[in-house]
């Protein structure tokens, strides 16, 4: 396909495709377009966002089958071939001969690139290695000074995943404050979020208003726009003293306080009732994966709060109450909370 035709055909499945680089579009036309059309015939939509447990299992199955077909020793050799220079040529030939791209993405209605990144994260032995020591942070600064944003090179030097070193560097590259938020920091955060939202609204409105009207007018927006897909790295840069996760968590707290008029929704008897309601509602949904949960609808189980607040409370609940929760599926966690924890909470209430 020529580039314009590829963009036009991909746009049906990926609405933001025109914001993607031409090189990436050419790759997607080759790797994804035929798959997307097949999924459409089956009535399956292309997905984005978090991978479900079912999709993770499909990736594992696809990798295991490819290893059996080719005789490659491990998933790490398959996905991180550059770490094994002596086997590199043989592995790359086997990947080409046995159509690795097609096999990896089999049964998963997502762009190939996202599936590949997910597989690398799942099978990277350098991932999930715990907190960075002070010595590691100093090494990271030194390697970044030498190699810039070459995260692949830095990850090899530090035996950490690409994603891990990139995210950690974003946290430590400036003087980040880890203590309580000051009034000045909170104001900076609120102004930064307002600026981002105003820019979005004005872009949608076009140039119908003069610059003076834009800067002074009141804006009315959907509530969801206050916390949905905000550019947190940009907002963190404007705040200057916090990294992006802190900004996101603080903004959720600010919104929760405003939406609840400062009421303590998760303390005392109200807190017990909120936990009970949350467990019951999750159990009634009968979903297999947290990716399928409509957290927006669940928010009234606790009160009028942002969905990120509900997700944070559920995370705390499973970590504190469910033994070995990391090894359980989402539905097993919910069943345990319903059968074991719920009666205890109702008795306390």
Automatic annotation (TrEMBL):
Coiled-coil ranges (or none): none
Domain Myb-like per the UniProt entry, residue ranges: 173-255
GO biological process: termination of RNA polymerase I transcription
GO molecular function: chromatin binding
Species of origin: Rynchops niger (Black skimmer)
Annotated Gene Ontology cellular component terms: nucleolus
PROSITE patterns tied to this protein: MYB_LIKE
A Pfam short name: Myb_DNA-bind_6
UniProt protein name: TTF1 factor
